[in-house]
């Protein structure tokens, strides 16, 4: 058996919804949810969403990106695309020592480390247990920065400007 670093552990479930209090803290709506699970309602106020092959389709406007965390290093292509798109908010674990975090964080315009661990919701509506790590929100673009500042002002967490 090969020992895996903590940040490469695979979760039991890859589909988790972000609680509405997180989304509401941004004080804004989104043009597109780029990682929305198919055939499910959303708490994300957006005009459009992508449910399949999201990394291959065009992203437009101010986007929300809560990508699947399950695959080893699976966040890498999502964060590459998010940074290249340059306009939105992404949600990831706050695994600051993970290679994908170290690679992409310097390219974010602003980061917000959520004050309390978020209890995400399963597809059936039940609330999950407390996760093993916290959450980091990433901003790209002026609108994303404004949204994270608003979230901080609402008490959601602490801001960090990458250097």
UniProtKB/TrEMBL annotation:
Keywords: Methyltransferase, Transferase. The keyword Electron transport does not apply. One of its GO terms (biological process) is methylation. One of its GO terms (molecular function) is DNA binding. The keyword GTP-binding does not apply. InterPro entries: Dam_MeTrfase (IPR008593). This is Adenine methyltransferase.
